[in-house]
Write a structure and sequence with these properties.
The protein is of the alpha+beta class and 421 residues long. The chain folds into three domains: 3-105, no CATH class; 118-212, DNA polymerase, domain 1 (Orthogonal Bundle); 227-418, hpI Integrase, Chain A, CATH 1.10.443.10. The protein has 15 helices and ten strands. Strands 1-2-3 form a three-stranded antiparallel β-sheet. Strands 6-7-8 form a three-stranded antiparallel β-sheet, with no helix packed on it. Strands 4-5 form a two-stranded antiparallel sheet. Helix 3 packs across helix 6 and helix 8 packs across helix 11 (320-333). The protein is elongated and about 95 Å long.
């Protein structure tokens, strides 16, 4: 009967952990005396440990109270069980050799030309999806790919089949050490799993642990501008350039659109139609850049006031970066400076030019970004306008997505429902 053991062969830290299969018989292998050879094959696993932390007698980490060592021991146990199943399935059908064991640990795939490296598959995925996904999605995929490139410089190449619990924990620790926000890590793991699922659909091997990899999102404080704060913004005296930015901010808060859409608004998109009562309604028609949806929205009286002030034209378009910078100035001048909890990008250290999100208590004006208009529209009108109409205006795909977007939990909705009883 075959037995499986783990051992290390080096005193250097870290040392590779080897797996050794002994005791059974090797089909097709004979000695010079025509006796069947005893089974004794060894191969290196992907696991490593400091030799000082390894128990030769137990063939396991010494301190199993340590969370990392406990997990390593669990992974080795899983590997041992999988190998034993594979041996019992194939013994008698194929020679059980060192090459057989190496093939089990690192299968040579028939890839059909598909890349097996995770980073290269990102490039392949983008190349075939670029005509059906948005530029924004492509940018996000490239951000994750570049982060993986930096990760690989420290941890070695990542194959699709090796996206397992070890990779997940290692990648998360790497991101945390580089001060990436928790929800950013969770979002990027979703991208990685999407890539792996696509590869699996094309016949590539993925790890059995891949589907179970999860980094839960944590609830964040959703910053938005209240009706009172919008009134302060309307009244504050500003120079011409900041007035231009103020008008865009108000337009975003009264249309609920992303900057990629509202900054493209032009006079030519504005039309007039009559409602059932015969009243003329001024609308704007456009394609949402992110979703591709055709949108038709009635223009709020505040937007119409801005257009009238500008002889029917929208404000002058500016870059996303300048807009994000200037709306903070507008809100500061409007005295929207109360301290609130939120997150903002800060330099990791002076002069590094590397920015990460920092959570803390800040003046509200410092937390304002281009997305605040969309969230303000959704939040301020929730409960005033039927949710189905709000969803039609924002372009969210489902009510659940919309409610999550404005930070409404199941308990929040239950309390609101109770008001009607």
């Amino acid at each position: 009967m075959a037995s499986i053991k783990f051992e290390i062969k080096s005193v250097k830290n870290p040392a590779a952990i080897y797996i050794r299969l002994t005791g059974g018989r090797m089909r097709g292998e004979v000695t010079k005396h025509n006796n069947v050879k005893k089974l004794d094959v060894t191969a290196r696993t992907k696991f490593y440990i400091n030799p000082a932390d390894w128990s030769k007698a137990k063939q396991a980490p010494k301190n199993l109270n340590d969370a990392d060592f406990k997990k390593l021991n669990s992974d080795l146990s899983d590997l041992k069980n999988e190998l034993l199943k594979h041996y019992n399935k194939t013994v008698g059908q194929t020679p059980i050799t060192s090459e057989w064991l190496k093939e089990f640990l690192n299968p040579s795939e028939s890839t059909g030309g598909y890349p097996t490296e995770l980073i290269k598959y990102f490039d392949y995925y983008i190349s075939i999806k670029k005509k059906i996904i948005t530029e924004s999605s492509i940018r996000k995929l490239n951000v994750v790919k570049h982060k993986l490139e930096r990760y690989e410089k420290e941890h070695g190449q990542v194959l699709i089949k090796n996206v397992d619990r070890n990779f997940h924990e290692s990648f998360q620790k790497y991101c945390e050490a580089n001060k990436y926000a928790h929800n950013t890590i969770a979002k990027e793991m979703r991208f990685i799993k999407t890539i792996c699922r696509h590869a699996k659909d094309n016949g590539l091997e993925t790890h059995y642990q891949m589907e179970g990899l999860k980094t839960s999102f944590i609830k964040v404080d959703n910053i938005y501008l209240t009706e009172d704060e919008l009134a302060l913004i309307k009244k504050v005296k500003l120079n011409e350039s900041l007035d231009n930015v103020r008008d865009w901010l108000l337009i975003s808060c009264y249309t609920g659109q992303r900057i990629s859409d509202f900054m493209r608004f032009t006079k030519n998109m504005v039309t007039t139609q009559k409602n059932r009562a015969g009243k003329e309604i001024i609308l704007i028609e456009f394609h949402q850049k992110k979703t591709g949806k055709v949108m038709t929205l009635p223009l709020h009286s505040e937007v119409l006031r801005i257009l009238k002030k500008r002889a029917g034209y929208f404000p002058e378009a500016i870059s996303d970066q300048r807009y994000n910078d200037y709306i903070k100035t507008v809100c500061r001048k409007a005295k929207i400076t109360q301290k609130v909890k939120g997150s903002k990008k800060t330099e990791t250290f002076e002069g590094s030019k590397v920015f990460r999100k920092e959570t803390g208590i800040f003046p509200k004006c410092e937390l304002v970004t281009s997305h605040i208009g969309r969230r303000s529209f959704a939040t301020n009108n929730y409960g005033k306008i039927p949710t189905s109409l709000l969803i039609a205006a924002t372009g969210h795909s489902t009510e659940q997505m919309f409610l999550t977007y404005i930070g409404k939990s199941a308990s929040d909705r239950a309390l609101e429902l109770a008001e009607w009883f």
